């Protein structure tokens, strides 16, 4: 569509090259795991960082708390705006106010199991929400000025078609979350092709950290290991312990997001470690951090893990955590990102597990001390 026929209101902006000399980032999902690491990275790089946060009756900016403190020394570099990916008008308003040079769309209902219970909401926020943000960019006439990152996911691959999974592997999502993200993936490609926007998909495999949400399996395990070792919990209940995931560290992955937006032309990239591990292996390594060896007995829903030294059962399978359709195996091939972006994950699997358990041990011990 030519500008003459554009239904949108355009702001009076400087030419794209001049506009991009400013370094202004807007992040949806800034309160999440990745949002907090990305904010730190961009502030370090001298960006002015704006984030979209949802109004909540409870405190939802824990992961950004330390940056608030910093703001006294770095005024105007970090600002939060109330908003939601379900509210187009609000997105247009924020964009027109902030005039970002880079947008990172990390906001999502990101829990795969929850997406089976909230399928329509997940489609609206994760799928149509991406369209809303892309259209908001066009509405204010930023389509040639701004660079757009879409948080795509290895959940797009879903059912195993080939491994390792790369940018050319066909998609076969297995959850309402995966299907919503498939829409977001293609609308990002479509707006790049249709309107010449600098828009790219980062197809990121699972990445974790001590800031990971507590209901994702790695954090659920690291917290339970800490609490069990401190005598505050007796058993960890899990679903499919044979699922295989390619787990990296979130801090490495947000760097890859930024790198994708610094290329001469927009492209889609896989970020992964190239290794896969079963959930049960994460359990074993996590307990090993506190000196416990886990042995397994039984099978299927009867399977349980026990402490090899004491015989105490510390892990049980609970079918309530099974999913209506599962993604059995994720194993990514990051060769393209390594070759073109020069990206490489820094933290390996063992160090990731150790860091997460150590952080939860520390947090759980401080909680005991606080209560005393
Ligand atoms: P989190 O679940 O930790 O964070 C999600 C963020 O999205 C939170 O800030 C949340 O806000 C926000 N959000 C939720 N609903 C809305 C909404 N309606 N409007 C605006 N914002 C909303 O996810 P991660 O940080 O782990 O992941 C970031 C992104 O990357 C997500 O899109 C996720 O799907 C995707 N992804 C994640 C991977 C991973 O392994 N971590 C791998 C591949 C992709 P609030 O705090 O208020 O809930
Ligand atoms: P995933 O992460 O679905 O891969 O999505 P999650 O940690 O939830 O599950 C990983 C695997 O562990 C199995 N599992 C359990 N999962 C949870 N949450 N709780 C349990 O008790 C449990 N027991 C076993 C799951 O069945 C699954 O196979 C994450 C999210 O961050 C997405 O937003 C992101 O797109 C993908 O990673 C890549």
Automatic annotation (TrEMBL):
UniProt cross-references to InterPro entries, sorted A to Z: GDP_Man_deHydtase, NAD(P)-bd_dom, NAD(P)-bd_dom_sf
Domain of life: Eukaryota
Enzyme Commission number(s): 4.2.1.47
Residue runs in coiled coils: none
Statement: the UniProt record of this protein carries the keyword Lyase: yes
Family: Belongs to the NAD(P)-dependent epimerase/dehydratase family. GDP-mannose 4,6-dehydratase subfamily.
Residue ranges occupied by any NAD(P)-binding domain in the UniProt entry: 26-356
Keywords assigned: Lyase
Name of the molecule in the record: GDP-mannose 4,6-dehydratase
Cofactors that this protein relies on: NADP(+)
Keyword Lyase: yes
Organism: Pisolithus tinctorius Marx 270
Enzyme kind, highest EC tier: lyase
UniProt-listed CDD domains: GDP_MD_SDR_e
One MF term in the entry's GO annotations: GDP-mannose 4,6-dehydratase activity
């Amino acid at each position: 569509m030519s500008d003459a026929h554009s239904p949108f209101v355009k702001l009076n902006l400087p030419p794209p090259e001049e506009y991009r000399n400013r370094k202004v980032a807007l992040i949806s999902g800034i309160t999440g795991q990745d949002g907090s690491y990305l904010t730190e990275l961009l502030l370090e790089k001298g960006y002015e960082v704006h984030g979209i946060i949802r109004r909540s009756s409870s405190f939802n900016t824990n992961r950004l708390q330390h940056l608030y403190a910093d703001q006294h020394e770095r005024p105007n570099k970090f600002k939060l705006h109330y908003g939601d990916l379900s509210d187009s008008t609000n997105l247009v308003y924020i964009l027109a106010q902030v005039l970002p040079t880079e947008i990172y769309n990390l906001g999502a209902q990101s829990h795969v199991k929850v997406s089976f219970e909230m399928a329509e909401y997940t489609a609206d926020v994760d799928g149509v929400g991406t369209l809303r943000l892309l259209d908001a960019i066009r509405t204010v006439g930023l389509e040639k000025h701004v660079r757009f990152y879409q948080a795509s996911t290895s959940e797009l691959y879903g059912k195993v078609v080939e491994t390792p999974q790369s940018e050319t592997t066909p998609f076969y999502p297995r959850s309402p979350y995966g299907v919503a993200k498939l829409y977001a993936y293609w609308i990002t490609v479509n707006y790049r092709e249709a309107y010449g926007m600098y828009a790219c998909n980062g197809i990121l495999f699972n990445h974790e950290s001590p800031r990971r949400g507590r209901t994702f399996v790695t954090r659920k395990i690291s917290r339970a290991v800490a609490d069990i070792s401190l005598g505050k919990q007796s058993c960890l209940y899990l679903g499919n312990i044979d699922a295989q995931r390619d787990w990296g560290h979130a801090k490495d992955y947000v760097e890859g997001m930024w790198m994708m937006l610094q290329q001469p032309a927009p492209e889609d990239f896989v970020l992964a470690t190239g290794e896969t591990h079963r959930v049960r292996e994460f359990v074993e390594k996590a307990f090993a951090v506190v000196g416990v060896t886990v042995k397994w007995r039984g099978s299927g829903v009867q399977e349980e893990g026990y402490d090899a030294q004491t015989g105490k059962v510390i892990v049980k399978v609970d079918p309530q955590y099974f999913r209506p359709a599962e993604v059995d195996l994720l194993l990514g091939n990051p060769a393209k990102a390594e070759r073109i972006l020069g990206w490489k994950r820094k933290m390996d699997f063992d160090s990731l597990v150790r860091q997460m358990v150590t952080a939860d041990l520390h947090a759980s011990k401080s909680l005991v001390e606080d209560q005393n």
